[in-house]
Each structure stands twice: as C-alpha cells, then as structure tokens.
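=== RUN LOG ===
request id: a7f3
mode: sequence -> structure
chains: 1
length: 277
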Amino acid sequence: MITIANPVTIGPVLVGKGHPLALIVGPCVMEPNDLTMTIAREVAEIGRDLGVPIIFKASFDKANRTSKSSYRGPGMVEGLKVFERVKAETGLPVTTDVHETHQAAPIAEVVDLLQIPAFLARQTDLLEAAAATGRPINVKKGQFMAPWDMEHVVAKIVEAGGQGVLLTERGTTFGYGRLVNDFRAIPQMQATGAPVVFDATHSVQLPSAGKGVSSGERAMVPYLAKAAVAVGCDALFLEVHPNPDEALSDGPNALRLDELRGLLEACLKIRAAIGLP
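=== RESULT ===
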C-alpha cells in the first residue's frame, strides 16, 4: 500500500482533506495583449474576496490542438516569463501543462504545480520526469480511462519520488465527439488517497466537433461544477475568459470571467451544506 500526501501543498495553497475548496483557474492558452495578466488579477481579487485558495492556470503551448493551423501559444520561454510576472504581481501559485519529458525540469523552476494532460496520463516517462522535479503534479484522468486506473498513475509518481499528486476528473469519451461525467469517479479516485479536482469546463467539451476545432456546451458548466462540489471534490478546475466567443482556444467550453464570482458563491454554499470546510 503506497502512502501519498493529502493535503497537497502548492505554493501557499493546501488542497485536500480538512481544507477549503480550492480553485485552479485561468485561460486555456496565454493570449497576446496582456490578457493573461488581466485574468490573473481578476481571479486573484475574487479569491481574496471569497476566501477561495486560487492556483492560476494557463498553457504556453497547446500541443494537442485538433488542427495544426490552430493557435498554440507563445512557447515555453515567453510563457515562463508570464508566469514569473503573475506570481510577482498577484502572489498566486501557477500551473501549466507539461507535454515532453525534457520540459519538466525547466518548467518546475518557475511553476508550482505540473499538469499532465489527459491524453498523456499513462505516459510513464513523462510522469517520472515530472516526479523527479520535486514539484506536486496534477494528472488529468484520460478520457479513455476508468477512475480506478488512476491508482497505477499515482503509484508511478510516488515510486519515482513524487512529492504530491492531484487527480482531475474531466469527462469520459462517449461515442464520437462527446464526453459524459460519472460522478462516482470523484470518490473512486479519492480512494487512491489523492485529492481530486473536477474540471467543469473540459467536461462540457465536444472534442473535434467544430470543423477542425473542439466545440462545447458552456451553459452546462455551472451545473456540473455544483454537482461535483455536492459530491465532495477537493478542488474545481475552470477555464475562464472575458469573451469566450473570441478566445483563441476552447472558447465554447470556457466560463465567462464575469460569471465566476457567482458560480463560486453558489459552490461555497453547497460545500457548507454538506459539512465540508
């Protein structure tokens, strides 16, 4: 039986048993014109006002876009500069995707939480490279994986010396171009000992359904987020954008930034109602 950390320490934020609902939040991809900083400042203010611990998320490279012509981001060098600025100006810990083993070490020099994309959740070399950095790791459950399969993911990381693991539920492939959520996955993955995050925005994604890009059902995000909190998830994952219809990646399933505060207020009431901090 492996022993893993719970709660998991991510900068100043503790995620897991006995701690408040945390939020991983930000735009899907870093966009030009200082948009990333605008979003970071806004979510930091909301977190302070509501007492919600925030981990800021953005991708510097969307390596798994449906079409090669889609916008991918500024790249690792420029992206890490943005994260340094976010941390300096807002005090928020930050997270981003790691797609290649050689990226893990340089990303970990700046980023507080390494995220393993769902498509790569079973890639042993990538998991071990992330673990070797000493940073905590958030692994998104593959759309093709059962919740109990994540036990083996956790074991790979712990056996490689990982210092903390989060597991994220983000929907399961159902036929072509659709995801569904089985909320039993939250307690089933919590049974591994790891805190569990619920990704409400990617769960409403309609993969490859938009003629070379993914589509999504944005209106369903609040329903799924509130359901996951009622089940007892340890954190929520939400991608937000001031104008999702103009977002350069995943706009159809992103929450409008001006709707974030109200959704969190509702989720906190649900959290209190089920007797969790």
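=== NOTES ===
The chain is about 30% helix and 20% strand.
The radius of gyration is 17 Å.
=== END ===
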